[in-house]
Amino acid sequence: MALPLNWKKGDKVIVPPPKTLAEMEERWADESLEKVDFYLAKKDLN
Q1: Is the whole model's pTM more than 0.85, yes or no?
Q2: If you average pLDDT over residues 16-43, what whole number do you get?
């Protein structure tokens, strides 16, 4: 995970980009992620 520059406790973190087509397909199926694009997704840190 990565934290945005002005991240505050409770904000979403950035999920690393997929490295394979299979990882990208898993990402699109994962409803827990906020998808911005195929390579950029965010999620809660819980």
Answers
A1: no
A2: 91
